[in-house]
Amino acid sequence: MTFTEQYKQDLFDALNKIDLAKIEQAIEWLKEARAAGKTIFTCGNGGSASTASHFATDIVKGASYGRDTRFRIIPLTDSLSTMTAYANDVSYDAVFVEQLKNFAQPGDIVMGISGSGNSPNVLRAIEYANSIGCKTIGLTGRDGGKLGPMVGLNIQVPVPHMGRIEDGHMIVTHMLAYYFMEEK
Questions:
Q1: Can you give the residue ranges of every domain in the chain?
Q2: Which of 59, 73, 111, 160 is the most buried (most CB within 10 A)?
Q3: Could you tell me the pLDDT band of residue 183, with boundaries at 50, 70 and 90?
């Protein structure tokens, strides 16, 4: 088997391990948030930051454009000046939680994306979100790390390979976004 054939097979195996019932639950939470005018916040580091931004774009444009009922979603990863100000002046661990302190309200949704489940800045954001009564979703990999048990809903890609974890997270976010683009 070639490298690419093996990668594809391992990716399919990883995707088959994702609990689809948890994705269905996330869809319900997103429906409720949209109906109630609640805000959804996303965050992550590295590739997960890109996934957080990509998901927000899919929701803000694809799942909202031309519709009477629109989503409110903010990727905490997208204000580079805000992130670097907090990273430089406070700590990198504060880059997401401090933004949430400005904007998050009880009943909002905070989605933390971390392949390892151990990103300190994501953990701090989720800890704060939980403390003020937000619903929390984690996209994790491996054993879920510290993030898995912290969130109200953990959507896990339970494999050790970071590439396939990140691939799985992108597919999960597309399932969520395209539900609203194609179904409702």
A1: 3-182
A2: 111
A3: confident
To the nearest 10°, the Cα dihedral for 132, 134, 137, 143? 20
Q: How far apart are CA 51 and CA 24, in angstroms?
A: 19
Distances from the Cα of 44 to the Cα of 27, 94, 97, 146, 171, angstroms = 20, 13, 12, 14, 16
Q: Report whether pLDDT(184) > 70.
A: no
Best CATH choice for the domain 3-182 from the list 1.10.10.10, 3.40.30.10, 3.40.50.10490, 3.30.930.10:
3.40.50.10490
Q: How many CB atoms lie within 10 A of CB 161?
A: 17
* Cα 80 to Cα 62: distance, rounded to the nearest angstrom: 24
Mean pLDDT of 3-22: 98
Residue 48's pLDDT is 98
Rg over alpha carbons for the chain, rounded to the nearest Å, is: 16
> DSSP of 96-114, one letter per residue?
THHHHHHH--TT-EEEEEE
What pLDDT was estimated at residue 142?
98
